[in-house]
Structures are given as structure tokens and as C-alpha cells.
């Protein structure tokens, strides 16, 4: 999927030349006393806004509706970073472009936050079924770990704490404000976790089917097992042989709900649902804002629909 080393280096060089020649910078608001925070994608935006609230201006690099695994930053994104105080990344290999971009940006004050720091990362391997993936072979360059941390409640809490700590370090005068906002958000995450831990512990069925294997951290939180059509990085459709294996597995485990995601083609999910005499349902991956729901609302919806499919 990522055959972009030479081409992307050229893009960086051209971009820097354009910035240098223009002599202009595209400004984020800087006259209102707020921290200028650039984030990679929507889930990071939500975490920053929950903690920073009206003390931050947030610019999100990856646009709404764009699959982040193949995204490349544009010249305007680099210009935003020229004036930013902080760049917030998910980390764990999610932003494959980050090292090149950070090197290219001329901004000595830029604080880069890898929110995966302190997380017990899940390895991608045949031993753990590539997050129970049954489909095409995974060809992503960064096969080491699953980067979908934000979809686990306990890992999202760690990511949010990393963001809080960075905001406190940059703007210590408002440290109490950030601490209080973090505690409030963390409590909501904890309460959601406690509510659904009881529910999932009460049922024997732990298997659900997703479009691609994004829910390993949620599964670890609640001792669930995702069976995915595509792998961790949404690499492509399964072969007919793998599709048959998936169909047989769904029938064996009596799985009748096949989950679909907005940024992944629904065709295979719909075909699988038809094969097992089941139905499809939408699940949120939070790469983008969906149905105008907040992070907490989206996660509650995910947990509720998974739980109801397992009963």
C-alpha cells in the first residue's frame, strides 16, 4: 500500500520550496491567546477538544471522509504546522507520513505528542489471527502493531492523559483547567467501560464480524473476539476461498449481524450477510465524524449495537 518513499520526499521538497518562495504562512488564529493544536485525524481532534475546550484552536490534517491509512499531507497542512504549538498523533504507525513531515517543518517550538506512549500495544501476527482477520494477506509496511488505540476505552483514556500532560506543559497557567477537563472525560470513559463490562460479562457469545480489523483494543477491554473481512489496514477484499471460510465460520458461530464501516465498501459485508441469512449494521471507526455524534456517543452506539448482536 505504501510505495511512496521517493515520491513523498519529492512532495516535501516541492512543498518547502513553495512555502519559501511565497514568503507567507497560512495562519491559524493566533491573536486570541489559545494554543494552536494540529491533530492527525478526527479521534485525536475529539480528545484535544474534550481537554482543551476553549483554550485551543484545532486543525485536523486528514479531512472528513478520507481513509487515513493511505493519506498524504498537503502543502496547506505543512503551512499550518509552521505556526502550531503542538502536533498530536495517534502513533503506533498510524501516521506513516509523520517523520518526514516533522523533519520538513521549520518550527522549533512545535511540540509533537505521540499519544500511544504508555499503551500496551497489540501485535499483529498469525498467532493472534491478525485480530481474527479472515481475508486477503496483510501487505502494510508497518506490520508490528495494531494502531487503532482510540477504539478501546482504556487506551483512549491513556491517549487523553498524554494530551492533557502536554497541554499542561505548554500552558501551565491553565493547568487546573486541563486537569479538570481530563478528569471529567476520563470519568465518562470509566463509566461507559463499567456499564458495558457488566453487560458483556453476562453473555456467553463473544464473536462479532467487522469490515476490517479495527476493534482489537475494544475486544481486549471486554474480552470479545472480532472476525474481520479485511485486515487491520483495510488492504482489500478476500478471495473466494477466504470468503467461503468466513461464511462457514459465521454459520458455525451463528453470527447474523455483519458490521459495515463508512470508509470501507459495504459490498462484501452485504454479500456475507446474505450468505448467512443475516443483516448488516453500521459501526463507527471514528476516523471521521459520523452522523454528527461525539466520540462518547459513537462509542456508546458501538458498544450497544455489538452487545445487542451477541445476545
UniProtKB/TrEMBL annotation:
It comes from the Bacteria. Keywords: Signal, Transport. InterPro entries: AdhesinB (IPR006129), Bact_metal-bind_prot9 (IPR050492), Lipoprotein_PsaA-like (IPR006128), ZnuA-like (IPR006127). GO terms for molecular function: metal ion binding. GO terms for biological process: cell adhesion; metal ion transport. PANTHER family: HIGH-AFFINITY ZINC UPTAKE SYSTEM PROTEIN ZNUA, HIGH-AFFINITY ZINC UPTAKE SYSTEM PROTEIN ZNUA-RELATED. Belongs to the bacterial solute-binding protein 9 family. This is Zinc ABC transporter substrate-binding protein. It comes from Clostridium senegalense.
Amino acid at each position: 500500500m505504501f510505495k511512496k518513499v521517493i515520491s513523498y520526499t519529492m512532495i516535501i521538497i516541492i512543498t518547502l520550496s513553495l512555502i519559501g518562495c511565497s514568503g507567507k504562512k497560512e495562519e491559524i488564529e493566533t491573536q486570541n491567546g489559545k494554543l494552536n493544536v494540529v491533530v492527525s485525524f478526527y479521534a485525536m481532534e475529539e480528545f484535544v477538544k474534550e481537554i482543551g475546550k476553549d483554550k485551543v484552536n484545532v486543525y485536523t490534517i486528514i479531512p472528513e471522509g478520507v481513509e487515513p491509512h493511505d493519506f498524504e499531507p498537503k502543502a496547506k497542512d505543512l503551512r499550518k504546522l509552521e505556526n502550531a504549538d503542538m502536533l498530536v498523533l495517534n502513533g503506533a504507525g498510524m501516521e506513516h507520513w509523520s517523520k518526514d513531515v516533522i523533519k520538513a517543518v521549520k518550527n522549533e517550538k512545535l511540540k509533537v505528542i505521540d499519544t500511544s506512549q504508555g499503551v500496551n500495544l497489540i501485535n499483529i501476527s498469525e498467532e493472534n489471527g491478525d485480530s481474527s482477520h479472515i481475508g486477503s494477506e496483510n501487505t502494510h509496511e508497518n506490520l508490528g502493531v495494531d494502531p487503532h488505540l482510540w477504539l478501546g476505552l482504556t487506551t483512549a483514556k491513556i491517549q487523553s492523559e498524554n494530551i492533557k500532560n502536554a497541554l499542561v506543559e505548554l500552558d501551565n497557567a491553565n493547568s487546573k483547567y486541563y486537569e479538570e477537563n481530563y478528569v471529567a472525560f476520563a470519568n465518562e470513559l470509566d463509566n461507559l467501560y463499567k456499564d458495558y463490562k457488566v453487560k458483556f460479562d453476562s453473555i456467553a457469545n463473544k464473536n462479532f464480524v467487522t469490515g476490517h480489523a479495527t476493534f482489537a483494543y475494544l475486544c481486549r477491554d471486554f474480552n470479545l473476539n472480532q472476525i474481520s473481512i479485511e485486515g487491520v489496514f483495510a488492504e482489500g477484499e478476500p478471495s473466494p476461498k477466504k470468503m467461503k471460510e468466513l461464511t462457514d465460520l459465521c454459520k458455525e458461530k451463528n453470527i447474523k449481524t455483519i458490521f459495515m464501516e463508512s470508509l470501507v465498501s459495504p459490498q462484501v459485508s452485504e454479500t456475507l450477510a446474505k450468505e448467512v441469512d443475516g443483516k448488516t449494521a453500521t459501526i463507527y471507526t471514528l476516523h471521521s465524524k459520523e452522523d454528527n455524534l461525539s466520540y462518547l456517543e459513537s462509542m456508546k452506539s458501538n458498544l450497544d449495537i455489538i452487545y445487542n448482536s451477541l445476545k
